[in-house]
Specification:
The complex is a heterodimer of chains A (206) and B (406).
Chain A: H1 4-11, H2 27-32, H3 37-61, H4 70-92, H5 94-100, H6 102-105, H7 111-119, H8 126-156, E1 158-159, E2 162-163, H9 167-171, H10 178-181, H11 183-200
Antiparallel strand pairs in A: 1-2
Chain B: H1 2-15, H2 25-35, H3 54-83, H4 92-125, H5 133-142, H6 150-165, H7 178-189, H8 191-194, H9 223-229, H10 248-253, H11 265-277, H12 283-303, H13 316-321, H14 325-332, H15 343-363, H16 371-405
Helix pairs in contact in B: 3-4, 3-5, 3-11, 4-5, 4-6, 5-7, 6-7, 7-16, 11-14, 12-14, 12-15, 15-16
The chains are: A mainly alpha (206), B mainly alpha (406).
């Protein structure tokens, strides 16, 4: 089940082959949903679920999909899964679903999804595709959560909505950094993560 | 001087490779060339067009900043004592001392944080220490309100030096003006400390000095703040912090609330004369920033509806004297690193800075002052302007060559 090769498929995207900080995919949603930890986490789980199951379905169908219309078939599969995720969120996590608004729907256009389907699922067996989907989803999610952690902590002084920075600090003159809430700081935070990551993995440097 | 030179020559071997302090070589070199002209200057070659090096350039800019800085210190004290109603019975030197003590910590914080990061980065990369922060470190305290907390200045300076300068490769490689990135960071991160009525006049005491009760009717709004919030469309009368009407005279000499170094157009003009006489700054940029500001103010005077955009009523000369416009024109837009480099490009660059500054002031009441955003935006476009100027020149010459060979 988890041979050495499969382990590589599952764990590679977490660091050396990370979709966000190495392949620079999915940046758009990393900007949009990371002002707070909770929506970032929900988004990470949603994307992981969609990419894992889309990978499996496309992998099962890979021998029957005509090559000329494969993108449309992939879109239909992904769209169906996204609608399911969207409905589940609306049913059970209405507040978060409102915060995520269009970005759940926009999972369809997330480059990571099409990239994995095209590059991996079309040429691999279902189990491996599933592991690849989970790996990439989690790799994407880790970055989202790290970015959201810093943005929420420095921008709002909270984590998951709970006040972390004590009132004492505010009395001494500390203020939340309003810039962290604005999208530019998400890019700069991602850039910092890439900076640290590349300096630890010399082989990734160009 | 001789003794100092001897001392430096004596300790120099310790900093050479192999010496016991060799890891601090770049720090030593930085100080040595700050004090004395390096022994190894270029002596031949076509690239020499001036005997001045970048350290000397920076020193001249600092000298040019001094009038505005000293006046800014005085004005901080002036506004404070005006606000507590004790201006008449306070001596000139006490007023200045109050401002000096209020501003000095900001200068120290800005230099310590900025130079600390620069020195560390230079040691880590085994580079020479570069002198670019000498000017930025002086500009930063001059473009913030007097009541900005020190830790905010420290955070913003660190952010600007790391993300706007070091990651681009250090002095001379930055795309955006460091001091303005610092200010923009403060402005967007801590808006309540960078705009509004409560930060531009120090109402509390400074190190126990000048404590007192605010007089009745005090309002700390800057003239541009008043213009931006003026409602109703009636005639706009700018007032000082006690509610007395402001004359153009006050605005020109700078007895108005505002960021520390930006209030006095006169002091800034003295700086401009120093910069232009020594040939450090480009007159093309300065001139065209003022031209752009005047043109845009006139357009606003004629066409904008003062009921919706109250700041459109201000005459061109008032627009130039108020806020950070003159400061941005003289010290920010003329930054040779982030501005346009071709001569035609300098005219376009400067003109658009002037136009945008007034445009933002008048048409976006959320930002009473537009000079910072105008310069930063045009910094981003400066390479594009240069590109088109160079391309146009190439086309022009090709055409001429074709006509000759016909």
């Amino acid at each position: 089940m988890l041979s050495k090769k499969n382990k590589e498929i599952l764990l590679g995207p977490l660091s050396k082959n990370n979709p966000v900080i190495v392949q620079i995919l999915g940046i758009c949603s990393a900007l949009a949903v990371t002002a707070k930890l909770e929506p970032a986490l929900v988004m990470a789980v949603s994307v992981t679920a969609v990419v894992a199951f889309a990978n499996v379905i496309i992998s099962l169908l890979r021998n029957t999909i005509p090559n000329s219309i494969r993108i449309i078939v992939q879109l239909v599969v992904v769209a169906a899964l996204v609608i399911i995720v969207d409905q589940v969120l609306k049913a059970y996590m209405y507040q978060v679903s409102k915060q995520l608004s269009v970005f759940v729907g926009l999972i369809i256009t997330n480059c990571i999804l099409m990239g994995r389907l095209e590059a991996f699922a079309l040429s691999h067996k279902p189990w491996e595709s599933f592991l690849d989907g989970v790996g990439n989803g989690v790799g994407y999610g880790i970055i989202l959560v790290i970015v959201a952690f810093f943005r929420e902590l420095l921008g709002s002084g909270t984590l998951f909505g709970y006040q972390v920075i004590p009132q004492q600090m505010y009395d001494w003159g500390y203020q939340n950094n309003g810039l962290m809430i604005l999208p530019p700081m998400a890019l700069i935070t991602v850039a910092c993560i890439i900076w640290v990551h590349r300096s630890r993995n010399k082989d990734l440097q160009q | 001087m001789k003794a100092l030179k001897n001392y430096i020559d004596k300790i120099k071997p310790h900093f050479e490779p192999g010496g016991k302090l060799s890891m601090f070589q770049s720090v030593f070199e930085g100080f040595e060339s700050f004090l004395f002209v390096p022994n190894t200057t270029s002596r031949s070659g076509v690239h020499i067009h001036d005997s001045i090096d970048s350290k000397r350039t920076m020193t001249v800019v600092i000298v040019a900043l001094l009038p505005a800085l000293l006046f800014g210190m005085y004005n901080v004290g002036y506004q404070h004592y005006l606000a507590i109603g004790e201006l008449a019975q306070t001596s000139f030197w006490s007023v200045f001392l109050f401002g000096f003590l209020a501003v000095l910590p900001k200068i120290v914080v800005s230099y310590v944080v900025g130079l600390g990061i620069e020195f560390t980065a230079a040691q880590l990369r085994h580079h020479e220490i570069q002198e670019g922060f000498l000017v930025s470190g002086m500009l930063i305290p001059m473009i913030v309100p007097v009541d900005t907390p020190l830790w905010m200045i420290a955070v913003a300076t660190a952010f600007a030096v790391i993300f706007a300068k070091e990651v681009f490769g250090g002095t001379g490689m930055n795309i955006f003006n460091i001091a303005l990135v610092t200010r923009a960071f403060l402005f967007f991160a801590y808006p309540s400390k960078m705009s509004g009525d409560e930060v531009f006049v120090r109402t509390g005491d400074t190190f126990g000095l000048g404590a007192g009760q605010l007089v009745e009717g005090f309002s700390g709004a800057t003239p541009l703040g008043q213009a931006a919030t003026h409602a109703g469309g009636g005639a706009l009368q700018l007032t000082d912090i006690l509610g007395n009407p402001l004359s153009l005279h006050d605005m020109f000499f700078g007895f108005i609330p505002g960021s520390i170094g930006e209030t006095s157009t006169l002091a800034i003009l003295i700086g401009a004369v120093i910069l232009l006489a020594t040939g450090i700054a480009s007159w093309r940029v300065m001139l065209s920033v003022f031209a752009g500001g005047i043109v845009m103010s006139l357009i606003c005077n004629w066409f904008a509806n003062p009921g919706i955009y109250p700041a459109a009523q201000l005459s061109p000369i008032t627009q130039i004297c108020l806020g950070g416009f003159a400061f941005a024109a003289v010290f920010m837009a003329t930054d040779p690193v982030t501005g346009a480099r071709t001569n035609t490009g300098k005219y376009i660059f400067g003109f658009l800075v002037g136009v945008l500054a007034i445009l933002i002031r008048v048409f976006n009441s959320g930002y009473p002052e537009g000079a910072m955003l105008a310069v930063l935006l045009m910094n981003a476009f400066a390479p594009l302007i240069d590109y088109f100027v160079v391309e146009a020149n190439i086309r022009h010459r090709l055409k001429r060559a074709k006509n000759l060979t016909k």
